[in-house]
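Instructor's aside before we start: the two examples that follow are unrelated to each other. I chose them only because their records fit on one page, so don't look for a connection. First example below.
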Amino acid sequence: MAIVTYILLSTLLAGLRGAFKPEIMAQTTSTAFLIVVLEILGLKFGTYILSISNDSQLLDLVAYSGYKFVGVIVTLVIAELVNHGAGTGGWAGWSVFAYTFLANAFFLLRSLKYVLLPDAAGGAPGGGMQTVARAQRNRRTQFLFLYSYLVQFLFMWLLSRQDRSSGKAVTVGGKV
């Protein structure tokens, strides 16, 4: 639902700026779905490389990848209201982006910890969960940090910093 809301909001904001074209909706949809697919492939590749045998379904990973859109939607709406149509640049856009990014990253870090870092104490009474070696646990923790903070920052920045009227990325100063 958040991805559809993001697509519709992005095209609505372009229309309010007087720059709506049907191609903008297609470009926004393609970008959003490409980011979700890249994220899921990255997660699957990471779990394969780290030998993580989880019972997570594909839909669970899609759900985790969709949480970033909520933060991007909030960033776009508040920045648009505060900046009066000037986009997500400026102090308001960056402040809201920083808050929603950190909230999303913290949520993913806490949620995916149970998938990537199984704990033997929380297992079945007979010791059903496998114990993970210290070095393997450290690699999994590093992967979890990389995914939760660095990858999410990149994807959320790409989604929230795109100027829909021209299709070009907006620079840090807020100018095209």
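Example two begins here.
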Amino acid sequence: MGQNSSKPPPSSTQHVFTSESPVSFSPDLINALQASPETDSTRSKDLELHIQRRVHAELERLDAEQSKRLSELQEQISSAPDSTTESIHPDARTPDQSNSPGGVDQKAASEGDKLRDLSRQSVQKEIDMLKEKLKRRKIREEVVKDKAVEKAKGEVVNCLRLNDRRPLDCWREVEAFKEEVGRLEKEHLGKLME
């Protein structure tokens, strides 16, 4: 079954086309075509290389445009006045912020100020969240400082080390630890409710 190929072998290397009208080519053209080292695969490779060169050139052009635009924006941001100095000295204005009606510089500056205000607000929210996390950590530190909880925890750890093959034998120590943690939770909730 596997001995025969699925495609019939080509009968010859020449293709013969028949047409209704007589077609004649000059012998020079036929000789030039037959003598040409170019094949279908070399033509497709040349086309592929040409396409790759054009794509590469286009990508370089786009990269150059983007880097130019980025540098322009960075320059605008760095040259924009700091909004904190404006809030301290509202009368101090730069020439870009003159009261020119509908000036592009004024619009860009106001948009930059809005972005700074938004970023300032988001940073303030993040600072508040971090403060809350720090307060929670202080509560955890109080839990760690509780001697009874530390003692119960130590007993559980020691029991598990002694009974490493039979951890269920430590149920008494685990229950004592749970009671101490429950007591500590009740104390904490009592402090919060007051």
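Residues 84-102 have pLDDT under 50 and may be disordered.
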